[in-house]
Amino acid sequence: MATPRTRGAARAAAALAAGVLAVSLTACGGDDDGGDEDKSGGTGGTGTTVTLPRLDGESLEVAAVWTGTEQANFKKVLAEFEKRTGAKVTFVPAQDPIINFLGSKIAGGAPPDVAMLPQPGAIKQAVERNWAKPLGAGAQAELAKNYSPGWQDIGKVDGKQYGVYYKAANKSLIWYNTQVFENAGAAEPKTWDELLTTARTVYDSGVTPFSVGGADGWTLTDWFENVYLSQAGPEKYDQLAKHEIKWTDPSVKEALTTLAEIWGKKDYVAGGASGALQTEFPASVTQTFTGGDQPKAGMVYEGDFVQVNIGETKAKVGTDAKVFPFPAVGDAPPVVSGGDAAVILRDSEAAQALATFLASPDAARVQAKLGGYLSPNKSVPDSAYPNEVQREMAKALIDAGDDFRFDMSDQAPQAFGGTPGKGEWKALQDFLKNPEDVAGTQAKLEADAAAAYGN
User: Fold this and answer.
1) What is the Cα–Cα distance from 389 to 433, expressed in whole angstroms?
2) DSSP bridge pairs for 337
3) What stretches of 41-91 show up as alpha helix (H) in DSSP?
4) What is the value of pTM for the model shown?
5) Which Pfam families match (predicted)?
6) Per-residue 3-state assignment (H helix, E strand, C coil) for 252-269
7) Rounded to the nearest 10 degrees, what angle do helices 349-359 and 361-368 cross at?
């Protein structure tokens, strides 16, 4: 029998699915402003809702793993903070796993003031190592005003608030090249079986169905999590995320076997397994939307942030590039969320002010209008986003409230869920290479998980 939380998750999944399905059919191009003015105050849609102290002469360092357009857009948020406070903020490029990067900085006596941590597991590790500092009253007040309890809770450790989830992601989306679909006569699928049919239709038209950025192991964990959540259900998902059940559980076998229906299908992945394992995430997107109606692949799975990389091509979101929800493998389509949280490592008035700013709608509005970004901040108006695709995604995210599941690998210790060449990333890369070895993959996942979780 479904529990209230299970039923809530199913309702949220349906709401998100309906929203994205609607927008995939009706969205305009990526430069559409919808004629919808942001009436939240200020100029350029930034507005002012939070009071910040003057910090003339103060300096801050903010570390994150963001690169390219994502980094450039976040720097504009930091520039707004500088303008409002007089502080000088320097962006510090970090490497994955960010916990290891921060450890080396701290050991050298030069930690950044604030770090953007992409995993709840990383926040927990930072607290356990006495690196992270609790948020002050200002940031907590903004969180209480602007965030649902669920988004506040994933930034807490032992009931104390350490993280501000500045950035969110809907990781349950598949993007497709509309010319490819039109030429093939392919339809947007709603179930896994329909996805396999769509893939076959695209393949028969002469285009490889899927582009997979297998060089980045996190894309593969996201594939697994969507299949597992929909197929095994929310309760099993939560148990596996906490390692309360083993990776040798039959539910994991079932999910891997399902994944192999795509990963193990000859010529369904651009470049084959070896090519996918050499393809980084940005290239997996751009190769889907370059080459007109003969790209390297017709579809690419990943979250809403794919729009940033589509923007690097000539394709327009809503016309050349459309999106549908990750199809239902079980009773309901999955809704997997991710995000990045600001965590203070060097406590100061300036660091607390930046955390307060990032918890306010003011910061989010700056980046929202630039595209490729979603905020879990419910005080950010839909009109802050630059096109109908993003407005619908943002609305669906907020409307879902606390009925979502956070990225499973991001909840794990970084040694298992967030380290290149190790743990879940490496095991799934090996599985992409040899999708017949379900049992061996399960055994490796369980051994690595047991070591990382300490059980």
Assistant:
1) 34
2) 170, 406
3) 68-85
4) 0.79
5) SBP_bac_1
6) HHHHHHHHHHHHCCCCCE
7) 60
Q: SS3 of 105, please?
A: helix
The 3-state DSSP class for residue 246 equals coil
Instruction: Note the pLDDT tens digit of each residue in 216-244.
Output: 999 999 999 999 999 999 999 999 999 99
**What pLDDT digit, counting tens, does each position of 276-320 carry?**
999 999 999 999 999 989 999 999 999 999 988 998 999 999 899
Residue 88 burial (C-beta neighbours within 10 Å; 0-12, 13-18, 19+): middle
- Alpha-helical (H) ranges within 400-437 are 408-411, 414-417, 423-433
First to last CA, the chain: 30
| Main-chain dihedrals φ then ψ at residue 105, nearest 5 degrees | -65, -45
In the chain, what are the domains? 59-170+339-406 (3.40.190.10), 173-334 (3.40.190.10)
Tracing tokens 């105050």 back to the chain, one arrives at 41
pLDDT band at 1 (very low <50, low <70, confident <90, very high): very low
Instruction: Give the separation between CA 172 and CA 291, rounded to whole angstroms.
Output: 26
Average pLDDT of the chain is 90
| Other Cβ atoms within 10 Å of 263 Cβ, number | 23
